[in-house]
Amino acid sequence: MSFRPDTNKKIKIMRNENGYVLLEALFSILILSIGIIAALQALKTTLHALQYREYTLAPARQLAEKIMAEVELNTFAKLPNFSAATEGNIDSFHYQITKTKWPVGTSLNKITVKISWNDRGKPGTFSLTTILPFQQE
Length: 137
Description:
By secondary structure, the chain is of the alpha+beta class. The chain has one domain. 47% of the residues lie in helices and 29% in strands. The protein is built from two helices and four strands, in the order H-H-E-E-E-E. Strands 1-2-3-4 form a four-stranded antiparallel sheet, covered by helices on one side. The radius of gyration is 34 Å and the shape is elongated.
């Protein structure tokens, strides 16, 4: 009696599975391609949103920096010493300058410049805050 495996059965089984390996590889490539396309589409959407945000924020940031520089140079309208606000409109932006006493010391003021706007019905805001020494008017 021989314990040798029957090689004819193995060859017959392998002949029936020859096409399945290629088919499995094709399906794997298809699923991987769909995943890569979805990831690239998400990346494209994210980059578009970031570019749009920078496009809308850049003018507001520039205006806030300009107003803050004018306040720091004291060329803007005179602001009352404490707990006061000045506001107005420049182009399509509304600005508000708030000057409050800094709680830590009596010789410091907290200056906040807040810019707000509406873009296609959606409100947007940008603000800058700094600490300046108290100035007599």
